[in-house]
Amino acid sequence: MTSPVPILSVQCGKVRSFQGPDNPSAIAKSPAEGPVRVHRLGLDGDEQADLRVHGGPDKAIHHYPHDHYAFWRGVLGEHPLLAQYGAFGENIATEGMTEETVCLGDRYRLGSALVEVSQGRQPCWKLDHRFDGQPVNARMVKARIAGWYYRVLEEGAVAAGDTIALIDRPHAQWTIARAFGLLIAGDHKRDREGLEALGEVAMLAEPWAKRREQLLGT
Questions:
Q1: Which of 168, 157, 55, 159 is nearest to 113 (CA)?
Q2: Tens of pLDDT, residues 173-191
Q3: Are 130 and 27 in contact (CB under 8 A)?
Q4: pLDDT, tens only, 38-84
Q5: CA 44 to the chain's CA centroid
Q6: 5-170 domain in CATH 3.30.360.10?
Q7: Can you give the residue ranges of every domain in the chain?
Q8: Of 95, 103, 104, 85, which is closest to residue 163 (Cα–Cα)?
Q9: Exposed, middle or buried by CB within 10 Å (0-12, 13-18, 19+), for 80?
Q10: Residue 148: how many other CB atoms lie within 10 Å
C-alpha cells in the first residue's frame, strides 16, 4: 500500500448564477475552514445545480490533483483562479495522487470517512466558461487529467491537514487514466478488448457503465 497523502484543501460551493440565470452552477468552490461532515451524497455545505449529471451517490465527492496546476499555468498563464484551490470545481485537493496512480474501485480513508473511486470526471463546457472561454475542456480530455469521483461507503469528517490513505485496490490494472482513455478520449477505437474487459469492474458507476455499453454498440 502507498503512504497516506496529505489533504491540502477541502472545497465546498453553493449553486449560483453561472452563465445567466438559466445556467446555474456550483462549480465555484471555496476552501472550508475546519472539519466538514462527509455523508452519502457528499460534503456538508456543498451543492450541485443539475442533479441529472452532477452529484448523487456515485459522484458524491470530486477529487482533482493539485499536481496539474503547473500544467494549466503553462496552458493558461497565471490565471487568477489557479492561485487558489478549487479552480476546477474540485472538493479535494492533494499532491501525489493522479489519474495514472488512482484506480477504479480504490478504497480510501478520507479523514475519518471511507470512500470508493466510482468513475473519472467527464469535463464539460462550464470549465471553458469559467476560464474566460479558453478551451479547457478539450485540453483536459486530450491530456487525460480530469480527476475522479468518490462514492461514500462510511460517513465521517474531513479537513485540510488530514490524510487520504489507500485501504484496498481490487483493480490495479484499471487506472483512471486508462478507463478515461477508453470511454472519453477515444481509445476504444483501437482497444475493443480493453473496452470489453472494463465490464469486469463491478463498482463502475452507472454513467460510465452506460457509456461503455454505447461504445460497444458502435
A1: 157
A2: 999 999 999 999 999 999 9
A3: yes
A4: 999 999 999 886 666 667 999 999 999 999 999 999 999 999 999 99
A5: 18
A6: no
A7: 5-170
A8: 95
A9: exposed
A10: 29
